[in-house]
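FW: tagging you since you asked about this chain on Friday. Here's the raw sequence from the shared folder, copied in full. Didn't touch anything.
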Amino acid sequence: MEIGQEDEKKAAKAVTEVMSETQGQEKYYRDMLLNRTAEYSKNKPKYLQWLQQVLFHNLKRVDWGYGWTYRVSVTDKGILLEVFDYRMKRHVKGFTPVGDAEVDLFAIDLFVIVTENTVDKVEKRDGQGNSPTGEIPTSNIILPS
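HL: got it, structure written out here
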């Protein structure tokens, strides 16, 4: 099957096949992640370090603006996320894992969404990276000196 067919029925079938394959891969990844997280939950220091790595990896999907950085740390209470915007203003959020792999991975997913919303709000973008006026945010433009 090939996406981009002129025949709508063939194209719809091709898209459905690609979507089901993608959903299958996502489910496999999520199940693998859930199993690994559950394994580590028996050892708190290792569990916290694993959650830190998962959050750090998932934050790579965020559409960071120019000059943004982030740091994920393990503390004695849990996981700390520090995000620095292009003006070096610090945005901080943390959570204490409950030890349930599914709940803690859900918390990480929420952290990624909240981080994306924070970046969009500071950059004054909608969900697609566009500013409300349709202009390119000036913080992403580098002018020659």
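FW: The longest strand covers residues 69-74.
HL: agreed, and Residues 131-145 have pLDDT under 50 and may be disordered.
FW: great, closing this out.
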